[in-house]
Design brief:
The chain is mainly alpha-helical. It is built from eight helices and two strands; from the N terminus they run H-E-H-H-H-E-H-H-H-H. The mean pLDDT is 86.
Length: 158
């Protein structure tokens, strides 16, 4: 913790919770990248085979259990991962390259932050209002955090 407090920059990268959960499902359940832990957790919590889970199954049967049972850390709200420090740089994931350019310069930002490592396919998760509402409710604290950060950034940029 001392190393974190004495760092030149404390960077927080945030992401819209609905996009984050859809990306998580896509990476772990569709593309099946690094999914052993979450598959084991899904099976344990739901009693169902993760290989046949739909996005709706994932949200309703698994993500909705957040706070009731221990779930895979990938599902935890973003604010659960924060350390008790002041973050001096807050960047939306979709603006990572631009945000890092302010700290490291354009050349390093382009080299290390421009290309997405494991981009998820595009999907209109908002087309299913029930899933959008359910995820937004589960991650309401993350949404409030993002809104307060955006409000603070708006006031400081004036």
């Amino acid at each position: 913790m001392n190393a974190l407090r004495s760092a030149n920059h404390r960077i927080l990268v945030i992401r819209d919770p609905v996009e984050r959960i859809f990306s998580l499902f896509t990476n772990k359940f569709v593309q099946r990248i690094g999914n052993v832990g979450i598959f084991n957790s899904y099976r344990l919590v739901t009693g169902k085979d993760p290989n046949t889970a739909s996005f709706r199954d994932f949200v309703v049967d698994y993500v909705s259990r957040l706070g009731d049972v221990v779930l895979d850390p990938h599902v935890w709200p973003q604010h659960w991962h924060l350390c008790p420090v002041v973050y001096d740089c807050v960047v939306q994931l979709g603006e990572l390259s631009e945000g890092m350019a302010e700290i490291f310069g354009n050349e390093l930002a382009r080299q290390f932050f421009h290309d997405k490592i494991n981009p998820s396919q595009e999907f209109d998760v908002w087309a299913d209002p029930e899933m959008f509402t359910r995820i937004s409710t589960i991650y309401a604290e993350d949404i409030r955090m993002m809104e307060s950060i955006e409000l603070a950034q708006t006031h400081t940029s004036k």
